[in-house]
Amino acid sequence: MTTLGSVAANFTRDLEQNYAVITDYVARARAAGVDFLVFPEAAIGGYLSSLGNHGDTVKNTKRSLPPAITLDGPEIARVQSIIGDLVIAIGFCELADDGETRYNAAAVIDGEQIYGSYRKVHQPLGENMSYASGSDYGVFDTPVGRVGLQICYDKAFPEAARVMALRGAEIIASMSAWPAARTATAENLQDDRWTYRFNLFDTARALDNQVFWIASNQSGTFGSLRYVGNAKIVDPGGNVLDTTLLGSGLAVADVDIAGTFTAMRAGMFHLRDRRPDVYAELTELDATGTAPWRDLAHA
């Protein structure tokens, strides 16, 4: 059996506060026997304080931006000193080798090794004013299995999870700083339409690809954003095994990865039963849904 854990917590610009929160959840995870723990997007240094046309940008201020760190820098090393032999996935702002370009990034690590890292591909609501975008979805061999990483808005794109599943991902860690709706926000955030979408994407992506899905998220508030929590663990059948709902907390589930895959994929095996020959024009369609054959038909 493998024990999976997912965190909903609040992270700010205060790195010492971040390390304290990480230390607390690592202790909770150890007490629960967790083998793989997923922290939210931007758990080291916090997320942007707002989104949209008034979002944080390098041009308008550097004071409100998350600290940009490198994979071999002291911040990741500090986290590694905290986690020891526990395998975790965690989000942060990565500084590229040019010393200027920033990425919304994540890595899967333990106290001794960086197994792989990821730079967020899909950017919502002006996030591109603060970050460059990544261009690949890697899958990494770790002590808990083959793990794929994605960040927040990525979960709205089925292609993102699918390419990792086709590359052999057994677990997909989806790290978020997912807020409630900016307009017509529900009084109870658990009923908010953005909370609903967050939860629906998690269950759909797990079931689409028949993988274990670990969704972490920030909780509380930061700047103008109110986060919706709802960290969870979903099995390959789309069943939520545990969730924090709105509050901060730790979701935990004991799973049999190999046994579950054998059972779930014995009959309906979504990856095996695909028909790529029918999907050839998928990347040829433009954003309006116009296909090349329509142009030819009216030529």
Automatic annotation (TrEMBL):
InterPro entries linked to this entry: Aliph_Amidase/BUP, C-N_Hydrolase, C-N_Hydrolase_sf
Alphabetized GO MF terms: hydrolase activity, acting on carbon-nitrogen (but not peptide) bonds, in linear amides
Keywords for this protein: Hydrolase
A Pfam family per the record: CN_hydrolase
CN hydrolase domain: residues covered: 2-257
The name this protein goes by in its record: Carbon-nitrogen hydrolase family protein
Highest classification ranks of the organism: Bacteria, Bacillati, Actinomycetota, Actinomycetes, Mycobacteriales
